[in-house]
Structure formats: C-alpha cells, structure tokens
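Subject: for your reference before the review

Hello V.,

The reviewers asked for a structural picture of the protein, and I figured it would be easier to keep everything in one thread rather than splitting it across files. Below is the amino acid sequence we used in the manuscript, unchanged from the supplementary table.
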Amino acid sequence: MTTPDRKDGAPWRNFYGRRKGKGLRPSQETYLDEDLAALSPGPVSWDDNPDRVPLDLAKLFPEASEFWLEIGFGGGEHVVHQAALYPHVGLIGCEPYINGVAMLLGKVRKAGVSNLAIHPGDARDLFDVIPDGALSRVFLLYPDPWPKKRHHRRRFVTPEHLEPLARKMKAGAILRVATDIEDYVRQTLEQVAFGGDFEWLAEGPSDWQEPWDDWISTRYEQKALREGRVPHYLTFRRTSPV
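And here is what came back from the structure prediction:
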C-alpha cells in the first residue's frame, strides 16, 4: 500500500512479510559479503537514487538482446535455471527476503551464470527505475498468498503493483504466474486478465494445468504437491498500450 510521500520525496510503502529468517550459515554470510554488491542492477533505493534515474539495462547486460524480471524468486531455483537456459537474456531477480537472496547467491556461484542481477528489496522500488517498455518477460511464481480475506489487498495482483509493472513491459511481453492457491487464481484472473493491460492466453485446460516447457519445479512447488495442493500455470500477454 502506498501512502502520502515522505519529506524527502520517497513514497511511504508499507511492506508486509519477513525481511530475514533464522540465522544464515557462514557460507551464506560470505556470499552476501563477497557477491551481492557486484550483482546489483544499479542504484535502486531512494537513498542511492533519489532522482529515480532509470537503470541502463543495455550497459548492465551488454550481451543481452532482451530483459526479463522475476519478482520474488524465493530460493532462486527458477531464476538461475532461466539465466543458464537463456544466456542471451539479461535477467533481474527481485527478493526482499535476505535468506532467499543468500540461497540464490550460492546457486549463482555453482551455475556460473553472468547474465543475472539481484535486487534484494521491494519490487516497487525497482519499478521506479526500470525504463518503461523494457521488459519482454516477467515471472511471478508462488507469491505470498495472504490467505486471510482482510489481507488480500496485500497480494501482488492488485493495481498498486500491476499498473507500474504493465508500464515496464513492452507490448506483447509475457507475464507468467504460478500459484497453488485457488483464490489467488481467481484474483489474478480478475485483476490481470480483466484489468485492461493483459490478455490471458489460455485456450484449454492444459494451458493452466501443465507447466511451461522450460519450467523447473521449485522447492515450494514440491511442498505444495506433497500437501495435496494443485499448481496452476497462468500465461498473460501485455496488450498494446492505448
């Protein structure tokens, strides 16, 4: 939720959820100390970039022909898989939970990918500085479901997040959403498919029942399957802005 601006011009953005969990392993502390700064996409925070100067993605990824974003990468299994699978893509992963960031840094070391940048913070701050129309693909995979009805406004699939996200995506860009929560599917279809900025590409049940061809199942998905929840795979296309 965004509330009136602070005196320094930055908006008050309420953040819900954890920034850090149980203690990190010594190896993970090392990853954070040694690797995170070098993998930054550039000045994103209001303290570092109060004028909200856009990121130079072509400079950040000089070998990339397109740019993708994963919002809330969890433990990083999927984002590092995509980076390795598509070396021509410049990929930014965004995750405020520092334990997940540390896990991804370990995977980056192991995979040896060089086309991945990491923002350890709020996606809304990143939306401020990604150039409009820059993104060709966006992933929102198993976002926090906020299951209580009074908390549904905290979900990512609300206008507060979707409207700025749509501006960052070029016409025809793809948004992939995976969730195992049926009510999240409902809200996603209401807000994304019928919000005016995206169209749902499903033509039959297999288009939401079966994962994408380049999918890798995450730890969270495996837990959901063990507990009897059914994953849904939703694909949307950014419509041409009016």
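For the response letter, the relevant points are probably these. The chain is about 30% helix and 20% strand. Residues 98-111 form the longest helix (14 residues).

Happy to draft the paragraph if you're swamped.

O.
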